[in-house]
């Protein structure tokens, strides 16, 4: 008998023949507030395509960012957030506070969106005591563009 007949294929052997492919993260599903960003990858033990998702927040909805644009300027790419914030998700609140960067706005018709990002785990605590860990996008830089 063969070992794989009993246990299935050996993941280390599958991995050796794998051409790892990962798409870029999609744009955040919301222009303000909490949204979702997705990508597809086969970077796993069995080299199988899987969809990954992460939470994202390009900017808070309640922020009036246009009032911070200086005279003569048309955009603020990454406005400074003065105080650390807690994120909310379905009634649950992040355990830690974060001094997150958000993308600003443009008054000349251009869009201001994340350019360089990183993904970090964030723990959320719910009113019933449940704690859940979710991957979340954190913005490093934003860019203004017409498309």
Automatic annotation (TrEMBL):
Residue ranges of domain CTCK in the record: 75-147
InterPro entries membership: CCN, Cys_knot_C, Glyco_hormone_CN, TSP1_CCN, TSP1_rpt, TSP1_rpt_sf
MF GO annotations: heparin binding
Any single Gene Ontology cellular-component annotation: extracellular region
Biological process annotations from GO: cell adhesion; DNA biosynthetic process; signal transduction
Subcellular location as annotated: Secreted, Extracellular space, Extracellular matrix
Keywords: Cell adhesion, Disulfide bond, DNA synthesis, Extracellular matrix, Heparin-binding, Secreted, Signal
Job description of the protein: Major connective tissue mitoattractant secreted by vascular endothelial cells. Promotes proliferation and differentiation of chondrocytes. Is involved in the stimulation of osteoblast differentiation and has a critical role in osteogenesis. Mediates heparin- and divalent cation-dependent cell adhesion in many cell types including fibroblasts, myofibroblasts, endothelial and epithelial cells. Enhances fibroblast growth factor-induced DNA synthesis.
Family per similarity comment: Belongs to the CCN family.
Subunit relationships: Monomer. Interacts with TSKU.
Name used for this protein in its record: CCN family member 2
Species for this entry: Sus scrofa (Pig)
């Amino acid at each position: 008998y063969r070992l794989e007949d009993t246990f299935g294929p050996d993941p280390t052997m599958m991995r050796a023949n794998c051409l790892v492919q990962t798409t870029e993260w999609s744009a955040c599903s919301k222009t303000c507030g909490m949204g979702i960003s997705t990508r597809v990858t086969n970077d796993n033990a069995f080299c199988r395509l899987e969809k990954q998702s992460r939470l994202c927040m390009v900017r808070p909805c309640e922020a009036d960012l246009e009032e911070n644009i200086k005279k003569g300027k048309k955009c603020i790419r990454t406005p400074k957030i003065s105080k650390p914030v807690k994120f909310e998700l379905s009634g649950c609140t992040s355990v830690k506070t974060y001094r997150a960067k958000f993308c600003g706005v443009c008054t000349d018709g251009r869009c201001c969106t994340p350019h360089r990002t990183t993904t970090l785990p964030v723990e959320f605590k719910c009113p019933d005591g449940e704690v859940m860990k979710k991957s979340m996008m954190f913005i490093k830089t934003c860019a203004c563009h017409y498309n």
